[in-house]
Structures are given as structure tokens and as C-alpha cells.
Amino acid sequence: MKEIKIFCPASIANLSCGFDVLGLCLDNIGDEMIIRTVAERGIRITKITGADLPLETEKNVAGVAALALINEINPGCGFEIEIHKNIKAGSGIGSSAASAVGAVFGINELLGKPFSRKELVYFAMKGEALASGSEHADNVAPALLGGFTLVRGYEPLDIVQIESPSELFAIALHPQIEVKTVDARAVLHPMISLKSAITQWGNVGGLIAGLCTNDYELIGRSLQDVIVEPLRKVLIPGFDDVKLAALKAGALGSGISGSGPSIFALCKGEENAKNVSIAMSENYKNTGISFDIHVSRVNPIGVKIIN
Amino acid sequence: MKEIKIFCPASIANLSCGFDVLGLCLDNIGDEMIIRTVAERGIRITKITGADLPLETEKNVAGVAALALINEINPGCGFEIEIHKNIKAGSGIGSSAASAVGAVFGINELLGKPFSRKELVYFAMKGEALASGSEHADNVAPALLGGFTLVRGYEPLDIVQIESPSELFAIALHPQIEVKTVDARAVLHPMISLKSAITQWGNVGGLIAGLCTNDYELIGRSLQDVIVEPLRKVLIPGFDDVKLAALKAGALGSGISGSGPSIFALCKGEENAKNVSIAMSENYKNTGISFDIHVSRVNPIGVKIIN
């Protein structure tokens, strides 16, 4: 029996302009998982702490992702999975992605790495599909690969890794309210104006150029969303005010993390990030809604083994 | 009296996924202009060769752009402009942009460079507006700045320069047919699906990342347009066939240059570009339509003084 312990990072998807394609990996917010090789074939979830989630393999995000992987290579052994959740389900910072990613990464390590991290995205997406109803990679890709990731396309799956400028920090403020992914999807319009789409892809181009050239101001100017944020922000009480507070405190940009309710901000430097975090906290207290807030550098590595 | 001679490069706008925001500067295709300082204030177009264009300042793209510039700073002299066109009007490789850019660049040089190249984009756009009916920067920006340019946004105008990978070559095949910009605009739909917009901005992100990291394969995979090309290609006889011929001969990608009718391809290396150019020429002969074809490295500098 061999056993490893894994840190499964949270992630911020969309990043304003990059709806459904962009994401970044957080560093000090994440779940832990223990995965062990056992003689009996198959996948068993043996323990879950920190969340009320199903132990049945087929009903658990980590279980489904793990099954997708072992069904591909049919190893001569099985795996037990313990999940210790720190990322709250439905927070909008990639809780289900962290579980899916931890499972496929851990099993791949125990099997001697038959797959690259990029190849693991495919299996982790199968777990994500259980949580959200559709196979998407904008959280699992950054959690697996670290830094920023771009899902260039799905047919075929094409994930582009983009290194983060070294001084980039992220803040995630999680209001303790529930925004269901299905509701966050329902407010979107299936048709959008060509004009606003052009604005959006100009900003996507600007954000990628800014990340590639360490141009923090360009990153800030590009963190705009004229399509999704105007529709979704109504689901998040106090959104406009806390975003404004972040910008006033010097954040490069701010927006909705994933499908919400978490609100993210990006900052240059740790000190600025701490100031922005204080400003956002002070501001959000006005809503009367409980919240968590996290400050993290962008995680350059992604999911990893810890002792 | 002081006089300078200027090379005004052609340019390729849109580049498949980057409709209305991306462009690149060509190197060995362009107009020449002679601009001289004269005592009498104002702008006079004294000579035009190679095209049947109006000499009246207010009806000429170069004249309108030049007026926009001198109205801003009110110099104590005037300027005479000679225009020697090599880029055919309506070809889709930035003919009007070249004229607008040459005028503002030349006058700015003669005045001792009161404006940066980036600042000149604003004045050149005023000339473009005369030709196309709207102020757009996707041709004038690359012609002024060289390399690739991204128009991140117009409010305020935000032009991002992106250096070209050194081995990148462009081909422009110009069928001798007329596609009016107004007709090319008319086939577009004002509303598009969110799904196709996401595909498009994934590709814009991929193209920028590919350019920034010299990843030629990623550049190639990103040169896709699911929104504009399917609607506009019907205006260009033989488009699908010649695009396929380019790709078969090893082009990274191919699409419509600007609003057409020119067809562009991007290639890695001069040898491959020449082969692709031959394959496109051979193929396009089948249409029976006369055409020009140009092979050019991406011009890293943009408009320049010659002699």
C-alpha cells in the first residue's frame, strides 16, 4: 500500500473578459486529499471532512474523475481517496475542480505518471461535468497546470499555459450566500451583440499580452467584462460597491470569480494586495453578509504532493 | 522648403479571429509619398499617381488625416503632399490606411515629432473614416507601429504593440474584383451566439499568446474565424479552395484580409512562404480571375522615411 497527500488548489475562472476560457491558480487556498493504492480494483471514497458530499464513487466529483482515468488505462490495482475540503462548495473558486484535479493527479502519480498534467485535464473535466452539468476546463486547467491557463478550444481540447508575472496577487472574497451555477447560467443571453463581443475579445487579447509582457497596467485595463458581469452581478449583493472599493484601493481590476458569488481582484505586489483586501473587507461588512477573504499570489505550479 | 519621401506599408487587418482589433504590417508592399513644408498654411495634394483619387484635400484620405493633425497644433507653415499609390484601392490590404498614415507620419517628422507614433493613430483614423465611414484603427495602427497591433479598446483608444516572431511571413493574394467595405459590412449579423463568441475570444487569446511566445503552431491553431469568415467568404470566388491549398502547402493559417477580397496566409520561414505562395497562385488560376500576390516578412518598424 502506497499513500500520498495532495494539495488541491482553488482557482479563479473567467477573469472578467475571459468568460469560459481563462483561469488562474491560487496558492494558499485549497483542499487536501490522501490517495492510496490498494489491491482491490476500483475507486473508493473512504472519508470526507469539511463538506457534506456523497461517498458513492459515481456521485462524487473526485470519484467520477478518478474512474475516467482508470477506465482509460485499467491498472491492476485500486485506489482509496480521502477528501478534506477547505474550499466551500458553490463558492465560485473551483471547489469541484480541486476535487477532480486532486483525484486524477494523485492516481497518476501513484501509477508512475502515465499522463502529463495537460493530459489529465481531460479526465478532471469528467468530474467537473458531474458538478456543473457540462465538461469545462476553465478551473481544472489552472488547478492542474498552475499560473494562468487559456482554453483555446475544446474540439480538440487545447490548453495554453501562460506564466504569471511574478508580482501578481489575487484576492477572493467569498460571501456566504449560494449562487447556483444553473442560476448563474440562466441569466446569460444566448445571443450577444457583435459590438460587445469585439470589445470583449479586444480585452482578452490585451490581458494575454499584458500577462506575457509583465505589463501590469495593461492587465488592469483589460480586466473588463461587458457581457457577463452586467447580467450576473445582480445575483451578488454589494458587488458594485466592493469592486469600486478594490479599485479605489489600487487593485488592477476586479470582477466575479467563476459563476460567483466570490468576487476577485488582481493586484501588483503583496502589500497592495493586503491593502485591497482590507478595503474590500471593510466595504463588504456594510452588506451584513458573512464572508471569507483570501489573499494569494498566483500559484505557478498547480496541484502538488505534500509530505 | 524641406521635403521627405516616405514608404507607407500595406497591412492585413482582422487576421481571422481578431475581427476589428488585430492587424499586421507588411514590408515590401506599400505606397510612396513625398511631403514638403511650404510657407503657405494648409494642406495641398499636389500630385497623385497610380490611382484615380481626388486632389481636393477634404475629399482625400491623406488630406483629411493631415488636416486633423495640423488643426491640433496649428503650425506656422503648410504642407504639400504627393501620393504614389502601389496598393490598389479596395484590395483589403490597407490602401486608405497607408495614405492616412503616410500623411500624418510625414508631417509629424517635418514638424520635429511633436507626437509619438502611437499618438498619430488618432489622426490617421480621421482619414480612414473618410474611406470607410467609421473611425477604425486596425489597419492604421500596424502601418504606423509595425509588427502586430491589437486595438484593445476605443474608449479611450488603447493600442497594444506585439512584436512579431522573427520567422513569420505573410502572403496576400489580391483577386482583381471589387468588394466594397459597405457590402462586406452588410453581410454581417449584428447579433452573434455567445457560444461562437467564446470560441472566437479563445482563439484571440491563443493567437496573442502564440505571438508573444514564438509558438508558431499555436499561432496556426488560433487562426480561425467562426463568425465573420463564414459570412464574408461568399463574396470572394474561390476562397475555400485557395485557403485549402495554402494550408496543404504548409501555411500556419489563412483567411480574409481585412474586409476582402484579398486572402492572406501566414507562414513560418521564407521558403515555406514562397511554396505557399506558389500553391495559392496555381490554385487561384482556376478561378479565371486576375490577381496579384505578395510575399512579405512582417514589417517590424512600420511607416518610414526612405532616402
From TrEMBL, chains A, B:
Residues 64-147 form the GHMP kinase N-terminal domain. Its EC number is 2.7.1.39. It is an enzyme of class 2 (transferase). It is found in: Cytoplasm. It catalyses: L-homoserine + ATP = O-phospho-L-homoserine + ADP + H(+). Residues 208-286 form the GHMP kinase C-terminal domain. GO terms for molecular function: homoserine kinase activity. PANTHER family: HOMOSERINE KINASE, HOMOSERINE/4-DIPHOSPHOCYTIDYL-2-C-METHYL-D-ERYTHRITOL KINASE. Belongs to the GHMP kinase family. Homoserine kinase subfamily. This is Homoserine kinase. The gene is thrB.
